[in-house]
Design goal:
By secondary structure, the protein is an alpha+beta fold. It contains 16 helices and 25 strands. Bound molecules: flavin-adenine dinucleotide.
């Protein structure tokens, strides 16, 4: 047996007499799932309450059909290979190397994501331009009216002049760099560009149009710098068969018996050393009492929990004001991957930029070069996303088709036929991230990092808070994971909880054979077996011992079951898996998940 050593904090915990905590986690997105696995790795028992019928939250792949590559990412779609995303890559490695291995349909495999490619287009104010690297466009290229001295400046060079120094500082030393950045937190990015950089408005507008989306520069300097530091990354990745694989693999490891679906948490109450969660679903109402609770939900969802303690006024202010921007995505399935066939400007992967309502067209990096149908993605942020909200699903489909038709007007397929997108369309599906849940992405307004961030992630006795918005790295999965890591540290009272990684929690991994992963406890010969459990493999050892009460909704049961009506209770010592509900029924009485509208193409509708 190899000699392995656990991080001292976890070791100490074992030596001082370990008592597993029962932790309730509200929200089965990336933050909730990651927190669950970290806690289980440290020997604690968790139960996730998820309001919808699936885990993953804003990581969501929508499949049009079972055939390969017929999907689009309604939520997260790509991971930049940059230092701030190491936590995500580490998680992926952990999932890849864990033994026993994940079932085939949960395996997570990275494939390259192409961020830009020859043939990508730029179409602004009716000007067409080869948009390969849209950010290298100059005002002169697209006839944008700017003072003479800016006419031949590339958008990316202008942007680098404005924020390059911040990014270099962050890369050198994140904490110091972030403090420096915070000096400008009260400035909107637009104000910074005009007042500190001295740019004329027209130059600001040009850069915002080509590099970003409408009104993004109203966000804080801090937010914009953090957002743009990743976009200069060269290598990007996505997950084969869809990003869904990531949360689904995590949920499998957490153990399905530790997740209750369709459970919208509507109440929280605190008593000394305990927190009681009330959840409501189509099938009934549930109350369960835990040692600690992590709220891994966005602030707007937190606001919708009316029945909860009122905390510090500044915390309530933070929950009320932390800004999220709307995001809109539509997957459009066509009979051919015409964008890869159109002559002469065909393209594989990358994205086109336009000022039309569709804003960005993302060409799939999966299935490139295959024949048969393919799926395009259109993607709009903030004000550009809002445009879509008042339209009906059919109007949204018509508008998107109209825009695509304008972009490919008069062009021909490699076989000589005219590109007729109306005829080629097989179906659309879209996701409006801002309607039901107010969860686009966290995008802080001026002053919000400085004044809202720390108080928002401060625990309230035994209630803790996690989620992408409580990280420095908004809009990314890595932000959600970082926030969970930090929060689990608060829960356990350990400052540096190791990430889930191929090499953790062992320090001297070099002595551990490559095919051994750290879900297996080291041997007893080291004097102590670490409390290392995972819900999928540790049987009832991983199931929380909690008191609970479940009141099934009468109408759900026929007369023969009448004797089961009324509260079902359970608690430490007599917990019975079968009675702790694993699904309260989702989506009917409390629609909570993102709205996804599926439509067939206009011709299919006849
Ligand atoms: C359109 C879009 C594109 C994105 N693109 C990328 C990308 O390319 N790369 C990248 O890394 N990241 C991307 N992101 C960001 C990334 O998806 C998020 O940062 C991350 O998934 C957020 O995870 P979370 O756990 O903090 O929140 P969420 O995913 O929002 O999870 C919260 C969960 O809580 C549940 N919930 C809410 N209220 C309740 C309640 N009262 N009771 C019970 N459950 C509740 C929700 O249903 C949800 O499942 C994108 C996001 C979107 C929306």
């Amino acid at each position: 047996m190899q000699k392995v050593e656990l991080p001292s904090e976890l070791r100490q915990q074992g030596q001082h007499g370990f008592r597993p905590l029962d932790v309730g986690i509200v929200g089965g997105g990336m933050a909730g799932l990651y927190a669950a696995l970290l806690l289980q790795r440290a020997g604690h028992r968790v139960r996730i309450f998820e309001g919808t019928d699936r885990v993953g939250g804003r990581v969501r792949t929508h499949h049009f059909s079972e055939e390969s590559n017929q999907y689009f990412e309604a939520g997260a779609m790509r991971i930049p290979e940059s230092v701030f995303h190491t936590i995500t890559f580490n998680l992926i490695k952990f999932l890849q190397y864990i033994r026993p291995a994940l079932p085939a349909d949960k395996k997570v495999r990275l494939i390259p994501y192409i961020i830009s490619a020859p043939g990508n287009r730029l179409y602004v104010n009716g000007h067409r331009e080869d948009g390969y690297h849209a950010s290298s466009t100059t005002p002169a290229d697209i006839g944008w009216p700017v003072p003479e001295k800016y006419k031949t400046d590339k958008a990316e060079d202008l942007m680098w002049k404005a924020i390059g120094t911040f990014i270099t500082d962050l890369e050198d030393n994140f904490d110091k760099g972030f403090q420096k950045l915070l000096q400008f937190d009260n400035y909107s990015f637009r104000f910074y560009l005009t007042s500190v950089m001295g740019w004329p408005d027209t130059v600001v507008d040009f850069v915002e149009t080509v590099i970003s989306q409408s009104n993004q520069f109203a966000l804080s300097v801090t937010e914009m710098v953090m957002q743009y530091m990743d976009f200069k990354t060269k290598n990007w990745w996505t997950i084969d068969h869809g990003m869904n694989r990531l949360p689904y693999a995590m949920a499998y490891l957490v153990g399905y018996k530790n997740i209750t679906y369709g459970a919208r948490v509507t109440g929280l109450s605190q008593s000394p050393g305990k927190v009681t969660i009330s959840a409501f679903g189509y099938n009934g109402a549930l109350k369960a009492t835990f040692d600690k609770v992590i709220m891994a939900i966005p602030p707007a969802a937190m606001r919708m929990i009316a029945d909860r303690p009122r905390w510090d006024p500044l915390k309530e202010l933070a929950i009320r004001t932390m800004h999220f921007e709307p995001l809109y995505k539509m997957g459009m399935r066509f009979k051919t991957r015409f964008w890869e066939r159109v002559q002469p400007k065909s393209t594989r992967g990358g994205q086109s930029t336009t000022d039309l309502p569709i804003r960005w067209i993302v060409y799939p990096s999966n299935g490139m070069g295959t024949s048969g149908p393919g799926v395009l993605l259109i993607y709009a942020w903030m004000t550009d996303a809002n445009t879509w909200l008042p339209l009906t699903p059919t109007e949204r489909r018509s508008l998107a088709l109209h825009c695509i038709a304008e972009l490919y007007q008069g062009e021909r397929d490699v076989d000589g036929s005219k590109i007729d997108v109306y005829d080629l369309l097989m179906g659309t599906s879209d996701a409006i991230w801002s309607t039901r849940t107010a969860t686009g992405d966290a995008m802080f307004l001026p002053g919000q990092f400085e004044a809202r961030f720390e108080i928002a992630r401060r625990p309230e006795k035994n209630i803790f808070f996690a989620g992408e918005h409580l990280s420095y790295h908004h809009t990314w999965i890595s932000g959600a994971l970082w926030s969970a890591l930090y929060t689990v540290g608060q829960v356990l009272g350990i400052p540096n909880v190791p990430q889930l990684a191929y090499r953790n929690p062992f320090k001297n991994i070099d002595e551990v054979p490559d095919d051994t992963i750290h879900a297996e406890p080291p041997s007893e010969q080291h004097g102590w077996i670490p409390p290392l459990i995972l819900g999928s493999r540790d049987g009832d050892g991983a199931v929380p011992r909690v008191e609970f009460e479940f009141k099934p909704k009468d109408s759900m049961f026929g007369d023969s079951n009448r004797s089961r009506w009324g509260p079902i209770t359970g608690g430490p010592g007599h917990l019975d898996d079968a009675t702790f509900p694993l699904d309260l029924g989702a989506g009917i009485s409390h629609p909570l998940g993102v709205e996804i509208s599926d439509l067939a193409g206009p011709h299919a509708l006849g």
